[in-house]
Prior knowledge:
This protein has 290 residues and is of the alpha+beta class. The chain has helices spanning 56-80, 90-119, 124-145, 149-169, 176-179, 190-208, 213-222, 224-239, 245-261, 267-289; strands spanning 8-12, 15-19, 23-29, 35-41. A four-stranded antiparallel sheet has the order 1-2-3-4. The longest helix has 30 residues, at 90-119. The two termini are 19 Å apart.
Amino acid sequence: MAKxxxxxxxxxxxxxxxxxxxxxxTAVRRPGxxxxxxxxxxxxxxxxxxxxxxxxxxxxxLIEAMYLGIKSLLYSANVSLEExxxxxxxxxxxxxxxxxxxxxxxxxxxxxxxxTDLFLDPSLPFYLVEGVLRVCIFILYIGLVSFVPSIxxxxxxxxxEHKAVNAYEDGAPLExxxxxxxxxxxxxxxxxxLFVVLVIAILVFSIIGALPWWQMLxxxxxxxxxxxxxxxxxxxxxANHTGNAIVRTLSTPGLWLQSLTTRQPDDGQLEVALSALSxxxxxxxxxEAD
Length: 290
């Protein structure tokens, strides 16, 4: 029996990206009301043996999420600007991404470390306080950006993506009427993944122990792939053991956090998410038929 494949994706500008077994599909609502689709075959690196190898697959997923996410965001941005003379080029998106990564390093690594170092010597309480500060800054950041109207709309598409995947995994028809009732939270969501990463970071940095300040800062950057790999394994395990009471309890904070990054979608947004998922499934079925 073939191993079950878990579909998933992300919200983009006025649309949803769904990653299938063999292809990634981005569906975007055009300014005129219709739908635009971009279907791209997946590189073997995203579906080969590295994607199935424990720990290594977490690093591949991190690279995949950044690369495919950037491409899908670029496509969705240009579709939303199709009636404008100027569209967004690839280099502009990379500038934005580099700036965003730098901002994330400052907010979630430099600031918590600096604030904690002002008041505590390196010890277990130091790493615990640093980790709690990191989580608080993360939650505050999400809360603040959620007030931006365009971000709130993207969060609604995020909710639509989750509803579509939840319905599919429940065996429901991929129709708007059948999908409305499903939850906007999902256990494999990137928000839950980030929360798990923040918690694992506390454990990893406490094991490393006391270092000179600049080495502690450097460790917060170069250990991102390691922590991401461990975080992915934790999410992967929880997704495969949803019936376990302990796993459900440990997953609850991540699900709560998704209330900040998802909104209830309207029927039009559900249509976009379902269209993306349907085309991803169709692409996989065509590949298998060949």
